[in-house]
């Protein structure tokens, strides 16, 4: 049924509406340039509205069901509610209790504040209900009380804050002969990037108004590019992810090669070749992981984890019919569970290549493929040329979205699926990130081309992303405490969003002045603030956001990464903090030369006129978001934090299990819980025997030897 509450309809509409618009543009009448522009803009706005509507948060809820016999329904309902209100009052975040009684069961729905961690809330409520049941405080004669966690697939089209699991997930048949499925979903890693993509696409189409050549082809390719970008962030099937990754490549190649500057062919070919090499390495790793995967083994060791992988029913049937044979999969969530198993085939000695585990090689190949897109030193050289030659709106998308795909791939695929390689190559990830930060900052200082300076600043800023991801500090030395690493990964994610805002703004502002004077030579600029005061004010705000000034969006990501690095290796943290000074140097020097310097010395001085209403309408939202995320970082963190924290905890559990396997004598030492804010809850369960269950069942009346079954899941169950 066509309903936006259906995740298949909602996510498919978001992804494929731009490509449908691209197809429609091809059939619009020739010579109707304004119609083509407006149609493309309306299409992109519709996608943005869908993603914003989807981003409207819903409160996490937990349901307590108390059956009763031989009692008045109203009396039971009042009594159960009073008992729960008193017991749950100390729990942080409880917003409201709503109750009803019918058919011999009293149901109380506990609603929590926006952004409250629903996993921990479930644990606390389950513990309190257990305590009530054991004390016999429920006003019922007999029955089993059940505590049901928030269901991520209740039919609501909105995003549930405080939940770490995959939301709106679905899996449909696509090419079942080769185990390829049309599988999509969003979580705290992907959804903020989906919002960023749809938002910047609207602004970039608005910035495309000066484009005059081959308009139908330009806007059709642009919308096709948007489909590719959105598909990458939503795909849960590795092969589908790869298809969208490649779909994105060709439109960008043509958009640079046809509508770019004088050296557009060289820049487009260089972009294509670098990205293609990365794609080939990714494909090799994809096939390595696919043929080494085995869903049957996962079912034997962790059936509950298998149930949370958004598998299609045909895949589950293949497991049952396998008869002991390996069942391969492209499912990203299943591959992550397989990769984090104690006896993972990705770390099996039988699959070693040149003495190193298959997972190590897969991580290395995937990492190279993703850092090409990031990009990081030394595979960054395509970026300055592509930015310099690309038209302004394409530079906005390239810096604001395409670079983020590299960081997203490392977070979504490299670390969860290949933890063996991630741990042993942490030094490589941190080194590449730090070198990119330092090199990019020094290279930006040396530039005289305005646009090339901004391009090298992107190399430096994206280095923070790699460094924040790479500082895997949770180890036996600190009792596997994940706080610092979670801070680093959160900083990396925040930096991707913040850089998407500031870099797109910087490239747009460079394009505004280039459209007037037709050059980018920094030595010929000067005094623009006096001639274009609104432009100068907006530019200073955006450039300060890129610099990481407190109160603007660039600050939080950088400070989180530096603080997390301090817990990992202090020398790296000191160098990373030094890069902040270099960043301030080239940003302030640029502002001085372009906006506050002496009189303008370049050509076409008469063309320097104030910004148009269209240009202000594009720049103003970027400034507004830079301010919003700077003064209220929770606007991003509430979406990202639960998923990132769950990821770091899962990977740390894997590391702890690996350490226990290699050092059996360490098992005698008690394990400390990672979070101190668990009230009276027992310490977290071990990394091997922890299970995810759907509900907690509790006796509502004490007996001589009460039989109480309580599950305190680390991740909310998902039903598909």
What does this structure look like?
The chain is α+β, with helices and mostly antiparallel strands and 720 residues long. Among the domains are: 1-58 and 166-417, no CATH class; 61-149 and 682-720, 2-Layer Sandwich (Alpha-Beta Plaits), CATH 3.30.70. The chain is 60% helix and 7% strand. It has helices spanning 7-25, 33-55, 73-88, 118-135, 191-207, 215-234, 238-259, 264-292, 295-301, 303-307, 313-320, 332-339, 358-373, 382-389, 392-417, 419-424, 426-445, 450-470, 483-517, 528-531, 533-547, 554-568, 570-594, 613-631, 634-662; strands spanning 57-58, 61-67, 94-102, 105-112, 144-148, 159-160, 167-175, 180-186, 696-699. Strands 3-4-2-5-9 form a five-stranded antiparallel sheet, with helices on one face. It has a two-stranded parallel ribbon with strand order 1-6. It has a two-stranded antiparallel sheet with strand order 7-8. A hairpin with a 4-residue loop joins strand 7 and strand 8. It is globular. The two termini are 17 Å apart.
